[in-house]
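COMPLEX REQUEST
Ligand: flavin mononucleotide
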Amino acid sequence: MTAIEQTKWLTSGDFTQADDPLRLFGDWLDAATRTEPADPNAMALATVDADGLPNVRMMLLKGYDQRGFVFYTSTESQKGRELSTQPKAALTFHWKSLTRQVRVRGLVEPVDPAEADAYFATRPRLAQISAWASRQSAPLESRLAFEKAVAFYGTRYAISAVPRPPYWTGYRVVPLSIEFWHDRPFRLHDRVEFRRSRPDEPWLKTRLYP
Ligand SMILES: Cc1cc2nc3c(=O)[nH]c(=O)nc-3n(C[C@H](O)[C@H](O)[C@H](O)COP(=O)(O)O)c2cc1C
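STATUS: Structure written out below.
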């Protein structure tokens, strides 16, 4: 049995019986961590701009718990600006090795500054410097200009810890719906949605036609 077949077998219990969506998400992410060749925490993040035009890009999930799903970025990036006017988002995880998808929709809030500081401190030094050097999503005149900015901030913080830039932080997607989809033969897929109208309400579970 290959590692992928083994993980599928070990985790093939009937997920439609689950009643805690964050716990089920954790089980699926753990399984994907054993089977995906790279970045099991990669997800598509969708936002909308001020005109309601959707925007989507890949991101890395950096934390999750019963409060929601956390990612880190620049508040001055395109997505940061979109989230400041429309603090709502959708996420999609797709694990090809497990033929599974999870979709999340919810409200977005910034994480506590202390939480962002703690996460920033765990990043490799060069990634910290690049957060200072990159004006994410702004026009860049040349690669050289970027490399000069990296050199500038590398010198500035040569003998001290690199502080978190004021415009770099985490966002938490507080879920209002979480949908689990698992491929079954002949397109008879299993699909279960957990939904609530407010974050302080209990989850309602519904099985959906695939
Ligand atoms: C697999 C993958 C993971 C990524 N993770 C992040 C991330 O965690 N944070 C981030 O700011 N950009 C990340 N990016 C880059 C974003 O997709 C995007 O290019 C960038 O954030 C600018 O997006 P925006 O202009 O819509 O704000 C990632 C890209 C890929 C392909």
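REMARKS: The two ends are 29 Å apart (CA to CA). Residues 11 and 27 are 8 Å apart (CA to CA).
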